[in-house]
Amino acid sequence: MTTNEPNTRNSIRHKHILDLDELNRSDIELIFENTDSMMEVLNRGIRKVPALRGKTIITLFYESSTRTRVSFEQAGKILSADVINVSSDGSSSKKGESLYNTALTLQAMKADAVVIRHQHSGAGYFLAQQMDSTSIINAGDGMHAHPTQSLLDLYTIKKHLGTISSKKVVIVGDLLYSRVARSNLWGLTTMGANIVLCGPKTLLPQDFLDSRLRETNHPFRDIQIEENIDTALEGADVVMTLRLQSERQKAGHLPSLREYSRRFGVTSERLKIAKPNAIIMHPGPMNEGIEIESDVAHGPQSVIESQVTTGVAIRMAVLYDLITGNHSEKES
């Protein structure tokens, strides 16, 4: 490693990043350590290092995206990798090619890593099963998972509050359909946070509502459910709002957006119920005036912009780790 490269340490055990249920606390902390080095690179006058020179990264996006796709592309280019972008509109899937045949094609191209976003849950797992030497990073699959978004959320919390352990994290909004929330439940639980979920019953997972998880030894058994947002926010260290998807109203999950905003919108007045130093987070894109007020989203307690910057550093760390790490004798 040259002096121009980030001062990263050992790699995690895994060849792929598919969701956070596969990562333990040590894995996550190691990614955080490597992210610290990547943040140092981002703060340089010239943000370019040769760490992945000669490596090829393919971003394969079957769903539209701005933040995730651009941050992965920027992360790869800062590390000097060759980044090839493939969208569903420009891929052979429009001609009927299956994901399996796409996997064979990408493997034949000797790609070092493939970043995939797909509308179907499990697409990343399927791709990982077909690839012998290529690392797969799940950039969002259906309603299932979005692991790098969760990693950047966790890192942001630690950066601003010093630790994640024992912090009260309140997640408000569409928890039933949010892949971000699902990955965050695994990550926050692993790191020892106290989690409260808040939203209308129609947008809460049924297994939480009927207490099935509490009757088992499931890692989520201690997660609390609260339908009253004022009660949920009391003493919160972190308030994480989720995007309310308008199609949920059309599907009969909500009476109206106005009613949802009145009952569950995070306002400056409601934020006073949380701790004075509580931070406000949102994975984006935001519906300002619905799930979160504009003065909260852009206020002094908001770390939403910091999440975006952190997203580049986290993805740099993940790409560097998976591509350069020796995973031959580790779990894949």
Task: Report what the structure shows.
With 332 residues, the protein is an alpha/beta fold. It folds into two domains: 142 residues, Aspartate/ornithine carbamoyltransferase (Rossmann fold); 158 residues, 3-Layer(aba) Sandwich (Rossmann fold), CATH 3.40.50.1370. 38% of the residues lie in helices and 14% in strands. The protein has 13 helices and nine strands. The strands form two sheets. The chain has a five-stranded parallel β-sheet with strand order 7-6-5-8-9. Strands 2-1-3-4 form a four-stranded parallel β-sheet, with helices on both faces. Strand 3, helix 4 and strand 4 form a beta-alpha-beta unit.
Features:
332 residues, alpha/beta, Rossmann fold, 2 domains, globular
The first-level CATH class of the largest domain is given as Alpha Beta
Question: Globular, elongated, flat, extended or rod-shaped: what is the shape?
Answer: globular
Q: Provide the domain count.
A: 2
Integer average pLDDT: 89
Stretches where pLDDT falls below 50 for ≥5 residues?
328-332
Taking the sheet with the most strands, its summary is: 5 strands, parallel
Tally of individual helices = 13
Number of beta-strand segments: 9
At the fourth level of CATH, the homologous superfamily of the largest domain is: Aspartate/ornithine carbamoyltransferase
What is the second-level CATH architecture of the largest domain?
Answer: 3-Layer(aba) Sandwich
Task: Report how far apart the termini are.
Answer: 25 Å
- Order of SSEs, N→C? HEHEHEHEHEHEHEHEHHHEHH
How large, in whole angstroms, is the Cα Rg? Answer: 20 Å
State which percent range the strand residues make up: 5-15%
Share in helix: 25-40%
List the quaternary state of the chains.
single chain
Q: Structural class, from helix and strand content?
A: alpha/beta
Q: CATH topology of the largest domain, which one?
A: Rossmann fold
